[in-house]
Amino acid sequence: MGYKQRIFSLLAISFIWADVSAQNLELGLMGGGAGYIGDLNQTNHFKLSGIAAGAFVKLNLDPYWAVGLHYNFGKIKGDDLDSENEQFRNRGLNFSTALNEVTVQVDFNFLEYFAGGGTKRITPYLYTGLGGVFFSPRATYVNPETERAETFRLRFYRTEGQPQPYRNYALTVPYGAGVKVRLKENWGLFSQIGYRTAYTDYLDDVGNRYADPANWPADDSIQLRATRNLLSNPSGSADGLPGRQRGDFRKRDTYMFVGIGISYTFVSQKCYTF
Fold first, then answer.
1. Per-residue model confidence (pLDDT) at position 3
2. Burial class of residue 185 in the structure, from the number of CB atoms within 10 Å of its CB (0-12 exposed, 13-18 middle, 19+ buried)
3. Within 13 A of 155's CA, how many CA atoms are on the CB side?
4. What CA–CA distances, in Å, run from 1 to 133, 145, 238?
5. How far out from the chain centre does Cα 99 lie?
6. Under the phi-then-psi rule, with left for phi > 0, alpha for psi from -120 to 50, and beta for the rest, what region is 263?
7. Residue 240: predicted pLDDT
């Protein structure tokens, strides 16, 4: 079974729960921002760099526990030229990517709460889960040959000398916290912040060492070699000597979603037997 098949098989088991009609089915939407912590942003864990939106379908198993299937979309980016770190500015890398994430998540409410009833109208909660994220980093630089800004899909240029392009999907582990508030009848409001540990170091196309241009494929054209050199070391810095560390030493990138949302719960006749 391939990597993608394992991810989607994992997502499918989220709804293997008996007697679904005895639970509360909840649908929700969320909007907010996305951020990134990795080789181009190593210290600011609260920096947002793009928009985010999401949707979910959730089963409230009882007032404390819920399991749901979530889809989140976000945009993240980083630019060394905007960094306060002089070494980063000298490196001169940048990237941006859309994130498409599908996860199974489990919520734990600290108080006896659910949108269709319960004794509490508000509760803090924690969540965690497992899923997959799809990404495709791009960068924009001025091409010295055309003297115009161009955008490049980085993974196909193997900027760190990889024998093959890295995968554009990865396992991801979400975890976070939030607050839920019950509104009138079956409507609920929530706000949350959550981080994701992605099992890849290439959300930003940076993860290892500078490549040796002498090892670029022999059949590369002169133009392709020039483009690889540009994307690998765009500033031409002496720090970009082959074999020197290009990113940090952490093996996984992290991204985050923060936002507010609204949900509607379809309450079954058995919901009050919790």
1. 52
2. exposed
3. 17
4. 18, 45, 45
5. 5
6. beta
7. 83
What count of residues does the chain have?
Answer: 274
CA distance 109 to 178: 10
How high is the pLDDT of residue 19? 47
| Three-state DSSP class for residue 102 | strand
Q: Mind giving me the DSSP string for 152-186? A: EEGGGG-TT--SSPPPSEEEEEEEEEEEEEE-STT
Q: Which amino acid is at 163?
A: P
CA dihedral angle for residue 111, residue 114, residue 115, residue 117, rounded to 10 degrees:
-100
Residue 3: its H or E element: helix 3-12
| Helix (H/G/I), strand (E/B), else coil: 200 | coil
How confident is the model at residue 106, as a pLDDT? Answer: 98
Q: How many CB atoms lie within 10 A of CB 251?
A: 10
Query: Are the C-beta atoms of 92 and 81 separated by less than 8 Å?
Result: yes
DSSP string over 59-74: EE-SSSEEEEEEEEEE
Question: Residues 205-214: pLDDT tens digits?
Answer: 999 999 998 8
Ranges of residues in the chain with a pLDDT under 70 are 1-23, 115-118, 268-274
Cα distance between residue 254 and residue 54, in whole Å: 18
Give, in order, the Cα–Cα distances in Å from 8 to each of 69, 83, 106, 165. Answer: 11, 38, 17, 22
